[in-house]
Every structure is written in C-alpha cells, then in structure tokens.
Design a protein that fits this description.
Strand content: 5-15%
Distance between the termini: 18 Å
Number of domains: 2
Shape: globular
CATH superfamily of the largest domain: 2-enoyl-CoA Hydratase, Chain A, domain 1
Radius of gyration: 20 Å
CATH architecture of the largest domain: Alpha-Beta Complex
Structural class: alpha/beta
Helix content: 40-55%
Oligomer: single chain
Number of strands: 9
Order of helices and strands: HEEHHEHHEEHEEHHEHEHHHH
CATH topology of the largest domain: 2-enoyl-CoA Hydratase, Chain A, domain 1
Number of helices: 13
Length: 298
C-alpha cells in the first residue's frame, strides 16, 4: 500500500478536524451505501434525489470505505455502482465551496494558495484510495457519469456501462483543470490523443463511443443486465486465488510509467514473495483430483 494511503488513513485517526471523517466514528455513510455480500462488496453512490452529485461526504467517505474493504478478508472484489437515475452528475459545486473557500477568495496571494494546495492533495487521495485498494474494483455505470464521476471510474480496474450511459470530462467547461486524477489515468486507458480531445472539448459522449475508445470493456442494454454482468465478472474474479489476483493488480499498477525491465524485476520479486502458497498447493491438488480448486488467499 502506498505511503500516501497510509498517511491519509493516519489523518483519519489523528486529525478529526481535517477534511476526512474518523473511520471509527462513521457508523453509517451519508453519501454511499455499502453492501457486503461476500465475496463481493457493492459500493453505491446513494444521493439519487440530487443525481448523486458529489457533495462533501462523497469525498470524505471513500477512504474509510476502501480501507475497510481492503482489510476485509471475506471481500475479494468490489463493484462501484449507483442508486437512482444515473451514476453521478459530477461535483456538487455549491456545497463544495464551503470546503474550499480559497477558490473564490478575492485575495489570491501566496498564503491563500498555500492553504488550497493540501486540500487538493486530500481530494486526490479520495479518488486514489480506490486504486490503492488491493481488491479489484469494477465500475458499473448507468446514465450520466460527468466530471468527478470520470475521476472515480478511471481509478477503478474495470469499467462497464449500460447503453444509456453518458460521459463527459467536463471541467474545462466550468473553468477548472481536472485535478484529482482523471488527466493522469485516462490517457493510460484511451491514449493521449483521445484523452486530450475529451479534456479540451468537454463534450458529452455516449456508451458506444466509450466502448470504441476502450474507456469501458462492455456495454449492456439495460441497467439490470449491467448489474447482473458486473456481478458475474466479479464472481469469475473471486473464484481465482485472491493472493494471485491482488499481486497481479500490484504488478500492473507498478508497471505504469516504468520500463519493461523494471517491471520484470518487480514481478520477479513479487513471485518470490508469494510462492509457495496454500493457493498454489490447492491448485495442484485440485488438478490431480480433477475438481475445481477452492482458494483461501493464504
């Protein structure tokens, strides 16, 4: 787990007055609904009356949620989806101004900007924690997925959507630079040329286009089919060795921006650290006994 993730978790405990809530104090989530159905956990954006516009709790709650799911040995895969008419209409600008008043301050001198910088870092952590979670995360998108929604789903491992999905890298249209992760992650998914088109035009694009540019792996006719297929994919993943799946995610993350040689050395170290394992022995035993293996992640 990255050092920044650990630092963010420590802030939750030792700085309750900071941007985040303390994990232990959060008995229920205000913006999200978390349903654990081992081996799958469903994380729903759950502010349907506001089209899941991302208000302060939407940002505060992701770190404790994904820290908990990372640690829960019964959970092997996470699906991020949404209640209501759409995935998200994007950031709730009106309600977020109180969290970052510096952006509207008339006094745009060094002291004001110095206060804003760590707040942006904190916001970045609230999306990066999805990527840092060792469990694979699948985004299941229906309806609008605007602005901050793209930040969220590009931090996921896999993206699926229904035919009614509409996406937009919207920030340029409202006078912001997208600064919490999408500009760093989406080029790795769709390539630099497409990423620049999306960022500069800020236009809406549909599910068909999202599939063409490889933003999503599959498009399904209805929301119901989307959820069914997301669950099937999650179960396919969960049936494999969790130790190996999670190690593969770490290797794939490490390889971004690295040379092939660096990545080969890293995966050699990873293999050395996890082999042998009970899962490996179970795989061999199941093969000889002509049965399906039952992996424990040990």
């Amino acid at each position: 787990m990255k050092a920044a993730y650990n630092a963010a978790c420590l802030r939750l405990i030792y700085e309750p007055e900071a941007f985040y809530f303390e994990e232990e104090a959060m008995k229920e989530y205000e913006f999200y609904s978390v349903e654990k159905k081992p081996p799958i956990a469903w994380v729903y954006l759950n502010r349907p009356d506001k089209k899941n516009a991302m208000n302060p709790p939407a940002w505060r709650e992701t770190i404790p949620i994904f820290d908990d799911l990372d640690k829960d040995e019964d959970i092997r895969v996470v699906i991020v989806a949404a209640k209501g008419p759409c995935f998200t209409a994007g950031i709730d600008l009106v309600n977020m101004v109180s969290e970052v008043p510096e952006i509207l301050s008339n006094d745009q001198k060094g002291g004001v900007k110095w206060k804003l910088l760590p707040k942006i870092y904190e916001l970045q952590d609230t999306m990066s924690c999805i990527e840092w979670c060792r469990k694979p995360v699948i985004a299941a998108v229906h309806g609008y997925c605007i602005g901050a929604g793209l930040d969220m789903i590009t931090a996921c491992d896999i993206r699926l959507c229904s035919e009614d999905a509409v996406f937009s890298l919207r920030e340029a249209a409202v006078g912001f630079v997208a600064d919490v992760g999408v500009l760093q992650r989406i080029p790795q998914i769709v390539g630099q040329g497409i990423a620049r088109e999306l960022a500069y035009t800020a236009k809406n694009f549909d599910a068909k286009r999202a599939r063409e540019i490889l933003l999503v792996n599959e498009v399904y006719k209805t929301r119901e089919e989307l959820m069914e297929e997301a669950e099937k994919m999650a179960m396919d993943i969960a049936e494999n060795s969790p130790l190996t799946v999670q190690a593969s995610k770490e290797v794939l993350k490490y390889g971004v921006g690295k040379s092939v040689d660096d990545s080969l050395k890293y995966v050699a170290s990873m293999s050395t650290n996890i082999v042998p394992s009970n899962d490996l022995i179970e795989a061999f035993t199941a093969f000889t006994e002509k049965r399906k293996p039952t992996f424990t992640g040990k």
